[in-house]
Amino acid sequence: MAARLASDVWVRAYLKRLEMNFIPAYVTAHGHAEAGAVLVKCATLDGRAKAWQRSFDLMTGARAWVVLAEGAEVEIDAAIARQRSFDPDLWVIEIESREGRTLLDEDGLSD
Fold it and tell me: What is the pLDDT along the chain (111 residues), one digit of tens a residue?
């Protein structure tokens, strides 16, 4: 089994990748530096948003980004607040992209 990156290292690398693609992104909740889970929200600047979380497949050992919530941005913010209420170590990254670009489907972002 491959070692996992510390959360803060992964977040910094992801933010740099977004920056290099001219996609504005911000850390809105700073989680545990080594082991905090990461949630990504993409606001499309039209009142809508989508949030993803990393999921672990027990059968294959694979990690993938899955949609946690999608809809009105206020509803997504409420879903994120609920997640943070029972996981204070959670990182939240917010992206602003009219096209909904997150780069989460690119190689290297599931680890």
Answer: 455 779 999 999 999 999 999 999 999 999 999 989 999 999 999 999 999 998 877 777 778 899 999 999 999 999 999 999 999 999 999 999 999 999 998 775 554
**10/14 Cα distance (integer angstroms):** 6
Query: Distance between CA 39 and CA 66 in Å, rounded?
Result: 10
Sheet strand arrangement including 38-43 = 25-29, 91-96, 38-43, 48-56, 63-72
The residues, any chain, with a CB within 8 Å of residue 86's CB and separated by 6 or more, are: none
Q: Token pair of 90, please?
A: 């959670």
Neighbour tally for 76: CB within 10 Å: 21
Q: What is the value of pTM for the model shown?
A: 0.87
Rounded distance between C-alpha atoms, residue 68 and residue 74, angstroms: 14
